[in-house]
């Protein structure tokens, strides 16, 4: 579940060019939100050629995921969710989210993004635009499910992840992942069946 | 849905005694968490007689709700949830939560408490203990539903409230409450049926 793809061939730019692009991306995403940020604008902020940005990051979604150190990018996670039987998508989604959030290293950047969004209007806009346009609407439209139903499913998993890892409610915090798959899978399946 | 009950009769203490008790309560709840805080300890912090604390606040739950300016107290909200047909409890819960969170005046203190819990370990402990012991376990035990299922229901509504009012995801943010009752009610009902 790597967040970036490197093209083969020569590597232009200094050793830290990638890091400079990511720093510029964080600044531009925070200021403009996800929708209005452009590869061109990020290149300008980083003082590099747009082609160099494209060399490191094929898409804006991938760049956002890398800039926020997210454990997964929409381009890798959406196909994982969509492949396999439609009647098992609820189970697949719950299992995927529990796997991504299980270890502190992959969970912490996600929680950091949520914390910012909870306390800062700019961060909330950035997270909202990314979640809806790059993630939820993509899945909903490919499965022909109304956006509201996907957001109900998101709400279920968002609340469970916060309850399990941030509030640490028991018995939720120490529940076995498979027990949660059994409990939550049918809820998500029902929303996706709409 | 008043959070406190005044006993009839004379009102001892200065005009701001109630406010002083609440300030002491906020300090003690933050330091000790909800479980370990006591009426006696709060009275000591406020430098008043414990009987005076009881005069203003009949229970620790009511005092917590008043101290955090919560729009509802467990003593008022749990009976509202439990009265009425068991097969409509999902619908009743969704409607109740959407009503309590609908106006900014009643929603903001709740969101403030969640924000603190998201960013501060002490506040997270306080919120966790209050939510589980004063709210979720009470409802679960009275309905003989496993604690994990109540927490799944909590997760659904917690995530929806944050998605609707903090992240402001569309179409969730402007969805009609009755549409949400129809969408989320069966999910909550299923957890409560367990």
Can you tell me about this structure?
The structure is a homodimer of 194-residue chains. Chain A is an all-alpha fold. The first copy, chain A, folds into 2 domains: 17-67, Arc Repressor Mutant, subunit A (Orthogonal Bundle); 74-192, Tetracycline Repressor, domain 2 (Orthogonal Bundle), CATH 1.10.357. Helix content of chain A is 73%, strand content 0%. Chain A contains 10 helices and no strands. Chain A has helices at residues 17-36, 39-46, 50-56, 60-67, 74-82, 89-102, 104-119, 121-143, 147-166, 177-192. The radius of gyration of chain A is 18 Å and the shape is globular. Chain A starts with 16 loop residues before the first helix and ends with a helix. At the A-B interface, helix 7, helix 8, helix 9 and helix 10 of A face helix 7, helix 8, helix 9 and helix 10 of B.
Biggest interface, chains and residue tallies: A-B, 40 and 40 residues
Order of helices and strands of chain A: HHHHHHHHHH
Which overall shape of chain A is indicated by the principal axes computed on the Cα atoms?
A: globular
Structural class label of chain A? mainly alpha
Helices of chain A, by number, come to 10
Largest sheet of chain A: none
Percent of residues in helices of chain A:
over 70%
Rg value of chain A: 18 Å
CATH topology of the largest domain in chain A, which one? Tetracycline Repressor, domain 2
- Low-confidence parts of chain A: 7-11
Q: Kindly report the average pLDDT value of chain A.
A: 91
**What is the assigned CATH homologous superfamily of the largest domain in chain A?**
Tetracycline Repressor, domain 2
**Tally of separate domains of chain A:** 2
């Amino acid at each position: 579940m790597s967040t970036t793809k490197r093209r083969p061939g020569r590597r232009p730019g200094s050793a830290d060019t990638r890091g400079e692009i990511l720093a510029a991306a964080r600044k531009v995403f925070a200021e403009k939100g996800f929708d209005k940020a452009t590869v061109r604008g990020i290149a300008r902020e980083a003082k590099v050629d747009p082609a160099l940005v494209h060399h490191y990051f094929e898409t804006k979604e991938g760049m956002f995921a890398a800039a926020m150190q997210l454990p997964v990018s929409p381009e890798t996670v959406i196909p994982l969710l969509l492949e396999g039987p439609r009647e098992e998508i609820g189970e697949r989604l719950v299992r995927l989210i529990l796997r991504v959030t299980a270890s502190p290293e992959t969970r912490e950047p996600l929680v950091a993004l949520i914390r910012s969004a909870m306390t800062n209007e700019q961060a909330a806009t950035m997270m909202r635009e990314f979640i809806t346009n790059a993630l939820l609407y993509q899945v909903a439209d490919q499965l022909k499910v109304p956006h509201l139903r996907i957001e109900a499913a998101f709400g279920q998993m968002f609340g469970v992840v916060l309850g399990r890892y941030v509030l640490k409610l028991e018995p939720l915090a120490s529940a076995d992942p498979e027990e949660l798959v059994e409990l939550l899978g049918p809820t998500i399946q029902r929303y996706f069946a709409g």
